[in-house]
Design goal:
This is Excreted virulence factor EspC, type VII ESX diderm. With 90 residues, the chain is mainly α. It contains two helices and no strands. The longest helix has 53 residues. The radius of gyration is 22 Å and the shape is rod-shaped.
Length: 90
């Protein structure tokens, strides 16, 4: 149960790290490299990174919501089993 509770936190940590990388990329100046083709390549990469990060964030949100539901269902099932076993042993 603890691992199930930790998974959404780990997923969010991954998304946060990717976001941090994207922000660092925004702060970097490709023009300072001195080559026009590098500037274009960096902008292209940045666009792809932004798209990918958006998709990862969407997946993390969906997984987080799903894992919350799974965790609640698991807890209810565990409580139901515990109650049933307690009632049958009485």
């Amino acid at each position: 149960m603890n691992a199930l509770a930790q998974l959404p936190k780990d997923l969010q940590g991954c998304a946060d790290e990717l976001d941090h990388g994207l922000k660092a990329l925004h702060g970097a100046s490709a023009a300072g490299l001195g080559f026009d083709f590098l500037d274009g390549s960096c902008k292209h990469f940045q666009g792809k990174w932004e798209y990918g990060l958006k998709k990862v964030q969407e997946c993390v949100k969906t997984l987080h919501e799903g894992l919350d539901q799974v965790q609640q269902s698991y807890a209810q099932t565990e409580q139901g089993l515990s109650s049933a076993l307690g009632a049958s042993s009485s």
